[in-house]
Write a structure and sequence with these properties.
Number of domains: 2
Order of helices and strands: HHHEEEHEEEEEEE
Strand content: 25-35%
Number of strands: 10
Helix content: 25-40%
Shape: globular
Structural class: alpha+beta
Length: 254
């Protein structure tokens, strides 16, 4: 008799629990991510590398130099900056940090598969001056002033992860020292293929590796609406003008 009661109780308990488990299984990883996002709501800043940190033993500023070297190494037809879908998200990506870009002249929504344990560095808005682009500039100090003047046009930076606002984005502005980059044929600057030196200044978002799952990342920079592209003194890629669009990334971390 006691065994029968135990069996009945076990069956009733199983029936009560099964629908909940089945529901969680049907949602898979996405359910887990939603729970994680709720818990991180009060401390989402912990997902962002501190400005004075050295992710993977490389300084924040040096990582931004690597971002510029990466974006300039990719020819126009495969460059993720002009990709409206995310088709080229993995172009020339390697190592523990992947680089993401803004959109030019119109909002875009990109879908990207990101390897697990990979950090993400995305520009909000940034500026760069090189000897190849500004032949009248002769020193590192002149390049720095050039980049700073363009970046000073930026009036704000915004980002959110799964609709949770990441606070204090304006503080993540980084200036670099002098660095090299190499332009291939058919480069996005539309100048002769060459290696040159540059200095950059920009607002960035540097996310630590996220748990496996689905995420929606949105970023947007703000500039003075009275400023035109001709006032920057550069071409359309090396400054913030035109890149102040909402860029949405649908990220699948796996």
């Amino acid at each position: 008799m006691e065994k029968s009661v135990i069996v009945v109780l076990f069956i009733l308990l199983l029936i009560a629990v099964l629908p909940t488990n089945a529901l969680l299984a049907s949602k898979g990883t996405e359910s887990i991510v939603n729970q994680d996002m709720i818990s991180m709501n009060s401390n989402i800043s912990s997902l962002v590398y501190d400005l004075n940190s050295s992710p993977f033993n490389i300084s924040y500023a040096d990582w931004t130099e690597k971002w510029w070297q990466w974006t300039y190494s990719i020819p126009w037809n495969k460059n993720p900056s002009y990709d409206d879908t995310g088709e080229h998200c993995d172009e020339n990506q390697q190592g523990p940090v992947w680089f993401l870009t803004q959109a030019f002249e119109h909002p875009v929504e990109r879908t990207c598969n990101i390897p697990q344990d990979t950090a993400l560095l995305i520009t909000i808005l940034n500026s760069e001056c090189s000897f190849a682009e500004f032949k009248e500039l002769k020193t590192e100090e002149e390049l720095l002033e050039c980049a700073k003047n363009m970046q000073d046009l930026v009036t704000g930076a915004k980002a959110s992860l799964n609709n949770i606002t990441i606070p204090n984005m304006d503080k993540y502005r980084v200036q670099t020292d002098l660095f090299n980059f190499t332009l291939p044929q058919d480069n996005i600057l539309n100048i002769t293929a060459q290696t040159t030196q540059a200095v950059a200044d920009g607002n960035w978002l540097f996310l630590k590796p996220l748990p496996p799952g689905k995420y929606e990342l949105k970023v947007k920079g703000e500039i003075d609406p009275k400023i035109s592209v001709n006032e920057t003194g550069g071409n359309e890629y090396n400054g913030p003008i035109g890149w102040n669009q909402t860029t949405t990334y649908n990220l699948l971390i796996k």
